[in-house]
């Protein structure tokens, strides 16, 4: 049985930022800038969200010439469900179920 | 950015790569790539944060808990063997026939258990310690119910109870090591 915990304040913050333009791929530094979180807080969270299938990631070519590709992130359908449920305060961590936005 | 800061930053990236568990190597590569897109004056702080993330990933990995428990099993077994040798040399042991030999025998048994843990893994510890638990338990019951309540028998009882406790802890620890190993296999790579 998978134990579900209520998302932390920082996770809620990241989820809320990722729901602003949910179809866009977002970069790690961009998320750091928007949330004010340190990289040491953000990246473990991103890893965990990816492990839980709430976030997807991919390498995207850099828009800057001569710069290496960047790792980008966006919420999966499940991640979006959770993000909206968290925003509504309807997530049910004990059952691992999230409410859907109206 | 001066050369010292640049060198420290590079060192931090090497550190993060070394600390992170193998299954998180892709994440460290992602952080290193991201650093190239960060203003130079903020890169060092970003790198330190990523080293923290690598430590977090290492500690959170089931392998870390498994290895730590396995190390505890080995060091604990060696420590108990050493304490048994120390006891065998004490005057209180020399006063009672058989006690020094018992101390040395227990030390040898725990040393064998440590070797088994290193060479054969925690399942061998469970087999060996499990058998020893049965023997020690039977001996305890025999002392309690068949022998007269003398100070010497009370000392034997206390010695066996101590060893039985340590053996039970070893069995539980070995079982936890096995269980954590299974948890790791179930995780997606």
Describe this structure in words.
The complex is a heterodimer of chains A (102) and B (189). Chain A is of the alpha+beta class and 102 residues long. Chain A contains four helices and three strands, in the order H-E-H-H-E-E-H. A three-stranded antiparallel sheet of chain A has the order 1-3-2. In chain A, helix 1 (9-18) crosses helix 4 (77-88). Chain A is globular, with a radius of gyration of 14 Å. Mean pLDDT of chain A is 84; it is low at 93-102. The longest helix of chain B is centred in the C-terminal third of the chain and has 36 residues, at 151-186. Chain B is elongated, with a radius of gyration of 25 Å. Chain B starts with a helix and ends with a helix. The A-B interface holds A 27-29, 32, 38-44, 46-47, 51, 57, 59, 62, 64, 67-71 and B 24, 27, 29-31, 33-34, 36-38, 45-46, 48-53, 56-57, 60, 188.
Topology of chain B as a string of helices (H) and strands (E): HHHHHHHH
- Gap between N and C termini of chain A, in Å? 29 Å
Q: What would you call the structural class of chain A? A: alpha+beta
Strand/helix succession of chain A: HEHHEEH
Low-confidence stretches of chain A: 93-102
Molecular shape of chain A = globular
| Pair of chains with the largest interface and how many residues each contributes | A-B, 23 and 22 residues
Mean pLDDT of chain B: 89
Count of individual helical segments of chain B: 8
Q: Oligomeric status of the shown chains?
A: heterodimer
Assess the beta-strand content of chain A as a share of residues.
Answer: 5-15%
Low-confidence stretches of chain B: none
Number of strands of chain A: 3
> Count of DSSP E strands of chain B?
0
Radius of gyration of chain A: 14 Å
Q: Biggest sheet of chain B: strands, sense, closure?
A: none
Helix content of chain B: over 70%
Determine Rg of chain B (CA atoms, Å): 25 Å
Instruction: Compute the average pLDDT of chain A.
Output: 84
Q: Give the strand order, joined by hyphens, for the main sheet of chain A.
A: 1-3-2
Main structural class of chain B: mainly alpha
């Amino acid at each position: 049985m998978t134990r579900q915990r209520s998302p932390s304040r920082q996770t809620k913050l990241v989820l809320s930022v990722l729901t602003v333009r949910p179809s866009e791929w977002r970069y790690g530094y961009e998320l750091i800038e928007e949330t004010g979180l340190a990289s040491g807080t953000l990246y473990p969270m991103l890893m965990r969200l990816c492990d839980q299938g709430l976030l997807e990631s991919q390498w995207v070519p850099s828009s800057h010439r001569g710069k290496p590709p960047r790792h980008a992130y966006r919420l999966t359908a499940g991640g979006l469900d959770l993000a909206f449920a968290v925003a509504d305060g309807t997530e049910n961590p004990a059952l691992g179920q999230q409410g859907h936005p109206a | 950015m001066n050369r010292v800061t640049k060198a420290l930053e590079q060192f931090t990236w090497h550190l993060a790569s070394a600390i992170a568990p193998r299954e998180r190597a892709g994440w460290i590569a992602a952080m290193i790539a991201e650093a190239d897109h960060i203003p130079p004056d903020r890169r060092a702080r970003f790198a330190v944060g990523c080293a923290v993330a690598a430590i977090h990933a290492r500690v959170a990995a089931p392998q870390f808990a498994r290895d730590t428990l396995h190390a505890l099993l080995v060091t604990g077994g060696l420590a108990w063997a050493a304490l048994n040798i120390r006891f065998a040399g004490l005057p209180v042991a020399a006063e009672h026939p058989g006690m020094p030999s018992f101390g040395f025998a227990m030390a040898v048994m725990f040393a064998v258990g440590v070797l088994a843990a290193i060479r054969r893994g925690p399942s061998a510890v469970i087999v060996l310690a499990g058998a020893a638990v049965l023997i020690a338990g039977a001996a305890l019951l025999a002392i309690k119910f068949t022998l007269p309540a003398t100070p010497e028998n009370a000392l034997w009882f206390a010695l066996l109870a101590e060893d039985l406790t340590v053996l039970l802890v070893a069995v539980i620890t070995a079982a936890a090591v096995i269980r954590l190993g299974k948890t790791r296999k179930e995780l997606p790579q």
